[in-house]
Hints:
single chain, alpha+beta, 2 helices, 4 strands, 15% helix, binds zinc ion
Amino acid sequence: MNIEHADFKMAQNNGEDNLLPCPFCGSHNIVYARYEHTAGTRWAVVCMGCMAQIDPGWAQSWGAVQELWNRRDILKKQSIPLHDFYL
Ligand SMILES: [Zn+2]
């Protein structure tokens, strides 16, 4: 994801799109980022505190990346390659 070409969507506190605080820096300033890929629109989650991000490359809705972020899959490393995260 080229963050300079992404649109950001703020998460609402306690709303259905709520995002948990950053597991790396503790920031509550977490946003959704929408960007255009040649395959279509993709979503990522970015911490504005430390720029940690989760961007699986296939997420076509904010709900998909919300689930990954809130489940802390970024800490479990599963199917998401480490190079997707910028610390
Ligand atoms: Zn952070």
